[in-house]
Design brief:
80 residues; 2 helices
Length: 80
């Protein structure tokens, strides 16, 4: 029974990590895209949407890099 609990814990930890990766990638993209869309509507332009989409993507990749680095190093301490 102990092995099953250990297996369940590792599965749940893996799901939590996958969820963190998804959230850390998608939230900056959606927020920056929404702000870009809003600015394009406000200024009647067409550049902010695309520009801020890429800024959000870069921020998401940075978040993923930092999270992966923490997981790889095995620590959960904040060094920033």
């Amino acid at each position: 029974m102990g092995k099953k609990k250990k297996y369940n814990r590792s599965v749940y930890q893996s799901l939590a990590v996958i969820t963190q990766f998804g959230i850390n990638m998608l939230v900056p993209i959606f927020l920056c895209t929404f702000v870009g869309w809003y600015l394009d509507k406000w200024f009647h332009t067409a550049i902010w949407f695309v520009l801020l989409f890429f800024v959000g993507a870069l921020a998401g990749f940075r978040n993923i890099f930092i999270l992966a680095k923490k997981i790889y190093e095995g620590g959960t301490k904040d060094e920033d």
